[in-house]
Each structure stands twice: as C-alpha cells, then as structure tokens.
Design a protein that fits this description.
Length: 175
C-alpha cells in the first residue's frame, strides 16, 4: 500500500511543479528571452535552454538565412506556451514577430522601455525591412532620433541582430 500512495504523491507533486512552470511562462508571453542553443534537429528546429525548460524556435519563426549551432546564445520572444499530458510543457519562441523587434528596441533604448517613447505599431518582413511608428510623450524628446541614436548606433545594433533588417523609424500619426 505505501508504495502506491508514495507514487501518487510523487505524481501530484510533479503536476504541481509543472503547473507552476506553465503559469510562469504563460505570464511571460511576448517577453524577450535569451538562451543557449542545446540542439538543432533534422527539421532545423532550434532548441534552447530557458531556465528549467526548453524552448523551441521552429524554422518558420527564424529569420531567413539564420543558422544556429549548439552553444550559440540566441534572443527571441515567447510566442506560445502549451501543456499537454504526453509532451509536458512546450514553449515556442520566435524571432520573426513584430513583438521581437519591439522588445529589441526596448532593450537598446531606455526611453522606450520607460514609456517616454511610445511604439504604436510595427510591421516587418523579417530580415528584410521594418517600419516602426513612434511618438514621444514629451516635447523634449525626439522619438525618432532617440531610437536611431547618435550616428545610428542604436538602430544599427538592432538591425545587426535581425540579419541587417532595414528599419525605418517614422513619426506616428493617428489621422
């Protein structure tokens, strides 16, 4: 009797742990993460270690021409979190969503992270070009100039992360 009870208890503890991990990552949807590549499979899906779980970057969520190998550090956003009985927790990450570009801008531009510059919309053809519509909450802050940075330093570092994607930063207009 005691062994069956112990197995049931172990199973319940495992379920609670899994539920906690699932909730933690579900709450981080759209968040920028950095992880180390641990595996690339035959279909060219790239697996990275994120904390206590593995995230998968499917080929379709990768910028055309990008190739990763084991040991590479990779940035992406959490696109999808799923939990099923057979496979456990699956975390799909992406480098092609507009959200990924938004998060990279917030990483490079403190004013955007702090909300002094608002990013209204982003459209992109990953690895090719993007348009980012921005505005400033203060007349003292030049939204476009701040994102581009002195001599283009900020926008160039973002572009380099995206396989030299051409990023146009434009003034948001609500008309």
């Amino acid at each position: 009797g005691a062994t069956i009870l112990q197995k049931e208890l172990d199973f319940q503890i495992l379920r609670l742990l899994e539920q906690g991990i699932y909730t933690k990552y579900k709450d981080r949807l759209g968040e920028l993460i950095t992880g180390m590549v641990v595996k690339v499979d035959k279909e060219e899906n790239t697996y990275i270690e994120i904390g206590e779980v593995k995230g998968v970057l499917p080929k379709r969520n990768r910028i055309k021409g990008e190739n990763f190998k084991v040991g590479d550090l990779l940035k992406a956003v959490i696109k999808y979190v799923n939990m099923d009985k057979s496979r456990g927790i699956t975390i799909e990450i992406s480098r092609t969503t507009p959200r990924f570009l938004e998060e990279l801008i917030k990483l490079a531009v403190p004013e955007a992270k702090e909300g002094l510059i608002k990013i209204h919309s982003i459209s992109r053809i990953p690895g090719v070009r993007a348009k980012v519509a921005v505005s400033s909450v203060s007349p003292n802050i030049d939204a476009i100039g701040t994102i581009i940075g002195a001599k283009g330093i900020r926008i160039n570092s973002i572009s380099k992360e995206l396989k030299d994607e051409n990023i146009d930063v434009i003034e948001y207009n609500d008309k």
